[in-house]
Amino acid sequence: MNQLLIVTLLTLFGGIIANYVCPPNLDIFLPCECRVDPGILPLYRSIECKGDQPINLTALFQRLSHELKADEKDYLYFMLFNKAVDVLPANVFADITFQHVELDGKNLTKVHRLVLNGTQDTLKSLETLNLPLVDGNGDWDVFKAINLAHNLSDVTLLYTNLTKIPDNALQSHPSLERIEILMSPSITSIGRNAFKNLTKVEFISIEAHVKDIGDEAFAVSHVSTDQTLWLSFIGNNLNNHTLRKEVFNGINRPVDLNVMLNDLKFIEESTYEAFLQQNPNHTIHSDTECMDSRNDWLRHKYPNQWVDRNC
């Protein structure tokens, strides 16, 4: 399909199409750059910061705030691929707004809870890659920053140095739909109410070395709904007692629970039966030694709520 046809269709079904090109004075973005992806229609501008030299991002965005016109301050992506930036302070973006923020800073260990001020109303997704983020300490807390971006729907944190998902980490966020905290083996615990009252969430995936999970960590709905929650603990070195029944208290939704790649030879009845009894639409996805007699309780009592890759 050619570009003219795409633009015509978008105009007919999506209203008037506006192209967002970079401002004429590109030098004001240095040492970063404004770029436009020609593969995205309508054309939309982004800001990218690369290299291995320190960048004063606060000074950069203050300069942009003062020199750009009002209609030149909205961008699709902010992408940080700089190896020297180690912190993101409060209000770093001034009044420059983004829909997506991608951070791959190598040395970035801390973000301030007010880091997204100015773009908190427009931000839809946050992705961190290979950031050695450390646990929150007062105002320096990535989860607090996420909570203040109330229109944020997608969060992905990869390869962090976090050791825990704290109590109340993302509790009552109004818009989160998809949460992925992956390839972070340093994470060993999930706190009480960590994902409580997330009424729009559809997918939560934790790939770490979780050994302890607090009560009602996944009580995502305070009222009963039919919306299924996909909850994945793939590759966590779980044992058969990590997911205590109290973890799922108050969940009030059907759950597809994935516990594959945890070396579970069987599914422990004393741990998981309470979970299956909570809702007839709860399902466990596993990869056990299928014919182990300790799985017989599932075969006989919950055949429609257990899916094992080896059976």
Description:
The protein is 15% helix and 23% strand. The protein is an alpha/beta fold and 311 residues long. The protein has 2 domains: 133 residues, no CATH class; 149 residues, Ribonuclease Inhibitor (Leucine-rich repeat, LRR (right-handed beta-alpha superhelix), Alpha-Beta Horseshoe), CATH 3.80.10.10. Strands 1-2-3-5-7-8-10-12-14-15-16-17 form a 12-stranded mixed β-sheet, with no helix packed on it. Strands 9-11-13 form a 3-stranded parallel β-sheet, with no helix packed on it. Strands 4-6 form a two-stranded parallel ribbon. Pfam families: LRR_5 (PF13306). Keywords: Signal.
Q: What profile does the largest beta sheet have?
A: 12 strands, mixed
Proportion of residues in helical segments:
10-25%
Structural class: alpha/beta
The neighbouring-strand order within the major sheet is 1-2-3-5-7-8-10-12-14-15-16-17
Question: Which helices and strands, and how do they pair?
Answer:
Layout (H helix, E strand, L loop, with lengths): L2 H12 L18 E4 L8 E7 L5 H11 L6 E9 L4 E2 L8 E7 L6 E2 L13 E4 L13 H7 L5 E5 L5 E2 L12 E5 L6 E2 L12 E4 L5 E2 L15 E4 L22 E4 L10 H10 L4 E4 L9 H6 L4 E3 L3
Parallel strand pairs: 2-3, 3-5, 4-6, 5-7, 7-8, 8-10, 9-11, 10-12, 11-13, 12-14, 14-15, 15-16, 16-17
Antiparallel strand pairs: 1-2
Keywords: Signal
Pfam family, one: LRR_5
